[in-house]
């Protein structure tokens, strides 16, 4: 992926302030940054969901905004605020999306069976999506993003609201996927997770890239990615507890 001069403004608010970034293929890439840093806005522009005010994005050598259909056929996306067709069962949803992707019915069936099984959703496959838990929805969204075997997978906060067992399942699926040479780009706030999964990271704050490169390089001499991150984004050194002097002790 090649990103040049990517820019997005919402009224007065500059969400993404001119990002230049090359993301290597075949890596497990983490996009990290504080709340409101511009991660979702950036991912939405890279995946053709939000039109940039300026700049270019190329995925697998194709311009996302000049050739959106081609790019969208090569990528899988688990967006933030995932919206699913609530009145379909999990199985119906995957079947529908697989057919929309142009896969033959028998192949959709085969892949759906396997994905439901691996993601531990087989027992709930005939339940309506509206009745799924948060973790089940994430896993269904992931299955939908993987169904057409994309070259690149973009995941916005894939582990949010997911229990440790499902987190492990998703990790295993993603590790299998990247081991075959595919690329995963995911955003997260959980530094331990990023550190244990990713081999390449980009740190974004206030709409700009603060650091990017192989994990070890970005971590540098810091004790952990978390410590490097706090330094890079200029975390304030004033513990909140000192300011909230009324909090605790039961006095009203
Ligand atoms: N549709 C919108 N309208 C107005 N402002 C927006 C919109 N989307 C994002 N923003 C603003 O752009 C900035 C970047 O938001 P974005 O959602 O990209 O951040 P983020 O890094 O994904 O944050 P978080 O980690 O909290 O999800 C924020 O200041 C946000 O308020």
From TrEMBL:
Keyword vocabulary terms for this entry: Antibiotic resistance, ATP-binding, Nucleotide-binding, Transport
CDD domains from the UniProt entry: ABC_DR_subfamily_A
Annotated localization: Cell membrane
Main localization of the protein described in the UniProt heading: membrane
UniProt-recorded name of the protein: ABC transporter ATP-binding protein
Keyword Nucleotide-binding: yes
Alphabetized GO MF terms: ATP binding
Domain of life where this protein originates: Bacteria
Keyword Protein biosynthesis: no
Lineage of origin: Bacteria, Bacillati, Actinomycetota, Actinomycetes, Kitasatosporales
Domain ABC transporter: from-to ranges: 1-231
InterPro entries the UniProt entry points to: AAA+_ATPase, ABC_transporter-like_ATP-bd, ABC_transporter_ATP-binding, P-loop_NTPase
Topology term for the membrane: Peripheral membrane protein
């Amino acid at each position: 992926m090649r990103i040049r001069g990517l820019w997005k403004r919402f009224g007065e608010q500059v969400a993404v302030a001119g990002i230049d970034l090359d993301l290597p293929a075949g890596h497990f890439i983490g996009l990290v940054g504080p709340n409101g840093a511009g991660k979702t806005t950036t991912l939405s522009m890279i995946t053709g969901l939000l039109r940039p005010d300026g700049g270019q994005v190329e995925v697998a050598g194709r311009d996302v905004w000049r050739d959106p259909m081609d790019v969208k056929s090569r990528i899988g996306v688990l967006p933030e605020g995932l919206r699913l067709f609530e009145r379909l069962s999990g199985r119906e949803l995957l079947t529908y999306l697989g057919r929309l992707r142009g896969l033959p019915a028998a192949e959709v069936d085969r892949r759906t069976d396997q994905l439901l099984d691996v993601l531990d959703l087989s027992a709930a496959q005939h339940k309506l999506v509206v009745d799924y838990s948060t973790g089940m929805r994430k896993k269904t969204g992931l299955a939908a993003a993987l169904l057409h075997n994309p070259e690149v997978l973009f995941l916005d906060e894939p582990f949010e609201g997911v229990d440790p067992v499902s987190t492990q399942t998703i990790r295993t699926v993603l590790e299998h996927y990247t081991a075959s040479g595919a690329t995963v780009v995911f955003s997260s706030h959980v530094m331990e997770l990023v550190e244990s999964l990713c081999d390449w990271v980009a740190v974004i704050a206030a709409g700009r890239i603060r650091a990017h490169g192989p994990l070890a390089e970005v971590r540098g001499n810091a004790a952990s990615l978390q410590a490097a991150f706090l330094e890079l984004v200029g975390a304030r050194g004033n513990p909140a507890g000192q300011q909230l002097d009324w909090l605790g002790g039961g006095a009203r």
